[in-house]
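Hey, quick one: can you model this chain's 3D structure?
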Amino acid sequence: MNKILLWTLGLVLYSQCAFSQLNENPLLNLQNFDKQPLHWGYFLGINQYDFKFDYNEYNTDLGLRDIQVGKTIGFNVGLIGDLRINEYMNLRLEPGLYYTQRDLYFPDYRLSGEDQRLREVKSTYIHLPLLLKVGTKRMGNIKPYIVGGLSSSINLGSNESSKDDNREGKFRMKKQAYYYEIGFGVDFYLYYFKFSPSIRGVFALNDELKPDDDPNSPWTGNVNGMYSRAIFINLTFE
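Sure thing. Here's the predicted structure for all 238 residues.
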């Protein structure tokens, strides 16, 4: 999380420096770039995924305590398709490959040993967002914007079809997930291309847990729902 905050701080400071130089560099780059009806690009970035759990019971006297989530930094790569609506709005499709890992620690008193309490959840997502990008009026070579929309992803590491569950050391998730996303960024019009750093929050709409076969499982028996949430920081080149 500290790295995410540092990236965000760097984005803000970079934007402020660029704004302060607007009057010093009146020469406009890529003056007709935003008039294109359709253009393409790509992005690189990092992510940090988390889980939000809903529980059936919260009685700590029975050993029903929260599942702890250890988060790591993952990476993103993908393509951009941008359709111009008008001067201020664009419709964007940003299919990408997202890799992440979350470590789950189950505190149930019935479990003993690190091999029973710890599950490493490695996920590789094919992420398909459809986003509306709303920008301000261009100011020199800078244009701040907000972005939001809906998305879907396919989890290639879900194990949903596996007959084994946590008793065999296999944590299972549903293959398909749906999200809403919201974020902000800044377009920088450089001499040869447009560069855009952005940060986005992503929140799952559906329960992604494939529960164990045993309804009283010490791993999933008390979980009513499990939802991904994530922070994406992307650097786009268009």
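One thing worth noting: The first strand starts at residue 38 and ends at 55.
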